[in-house]
Design a protein that fits this description.
Elements (H helix, E strand, L loop, with lengths): L10 E8 L3 H6 L3 H8 L3 E5 L16 E5 L9 E5 L5 E4 L3 H6 L16 E6 L2 E7 L10 H20 L4 E6 L12 H4 L7 H12 L3 E2 L13 E2 L11 E2 L2 E5 L7 E6 L11 E6 L1
Parallel strand pairs: 1-2, 7-8
Antiparallel strand pairs: 1-14, 2-4, 3-4, 5-6, 6-7, 8-12, 9-12, 10-11, 13-14
Helix pairs in contact: 4-6
Length: about 280
């Protein structure tokens, strides 16, 4: 079993990956090798773009939980776990969508797009999230800023009242200039607007910790690359995939890594290793 060199006791490895279509990754023959290489205890996926019955992935030893979008071939999240969760819930609570006036926009209802999946384990909640993209012309920026980001923050804060929280996934924002290769020309554009960055900062201000930054400083660490201009080979990318944890879990964090060598999507997997 592969484990980080930083972990000398029993560890739990959690991996998050925006697969940009689980069927596409599977057809490329790259999903099973990813699992074999990282040997995660829990796999959190975003942008599955499939219903569970459409997936060709077979992972013996893992229990599967899916939250697929009502719209076919779009969005969606999933959790594959070697240990059965105590409970699993989908989406944001109706009380939150009502509180933040989250209704359908021209792109659809963000709370029917399979974007949030929450699994309860004995000592923490684990949430995988696929945050709505604000779009090229920022058509969904208002949704992000006034509805989605504050509602999701409230979701994890409410969970934290019961036990510590880990949340991960494609948050569709680069938090600081160090989180993208070309910050100046992208200032104010989707994924690097003041509003989106503020939404991420609110997670930190609420006490959640960006685990990757516990171990790695500076730029050059990216998890998404454009499919144009040979961006991935040149490492001209963005760090928009994260693992954040409650402050009370920080002492258990032994490693947080980006696995840019693993191919199959325009994103690469990110991982978190915890002591048991």
């Amino acid at each position: 079993m592969q484990r980080s060199h930083a972990c000398y006791v029993a560890c739990v490895r959690l991996v998050s990956w925006n697969v940009n279509g689980i069927r596409a990754v599977s057809k490329k023959g790259l999903f099973i090798p990813f699992v074999e290489e990282l040997n995660p205890d829990v796999i959190c996926l975003q942008e599955t773009k499939a219903q569970q019955f459409q997936s060709e992935v077979e992972l013996p030893g893992y229990e599967e939980h899916w939250n697929s979008a009502q719209r076919k071939g779009y969005s969606g999240t999933a959790i594959f776990s070697k240990v059965a969760p105590l409970s699993v819930t989908t989406d944001l609570a109706e009380s939150l969508t009502e509180r933040f006036d989250m209704v359908a926009d021209p792109y659809g209802d963000p709370n029917s797009e399979g974007r949030v999946l929450t699994a309860e384990f004995p000592d923490f909640f684990l949430v995988t999230v696929y945050t709505p993209n604000s779009k090229n012309e920022l058509e969904r920026l208002a949704l992000r800023h006034t509805q989605w980001d504050p509602a999701f923050l409230q979701h994890v804060m409410e969970l934290e009242r019961t036990k510590p929280v880990i949340f991960c996934g494609d948050l569709n924002v680069a938090h600081t200039p160090d989180d993208l290769a070309n910050p100046k020309p992208n200032m104010g554009k989707q994924g690097f607007t003041i509003e989106e960055r503020e939404g991420f900062q609110n997670f930190l201000d609420a006490g959640f910790v960006d685990t990757f930054r516990l171990f790695h400083e500076g730029n050059g660490h990216y998890s998404w690359w454009s499919n144009f201009s040979n961006a991935r080979a040149r490492n001209v990318g963005w760090r928009i995939d994260y693992f954040l944890v409650s402050q009370s879990l920080v002492s258990r964090v032994k490693a947080a890594e980006i696995h840019m060598n693993i191919m199959g999507s325009d994103h690469c997997p990110v991982s978190l290793t915890l002591s048991s």
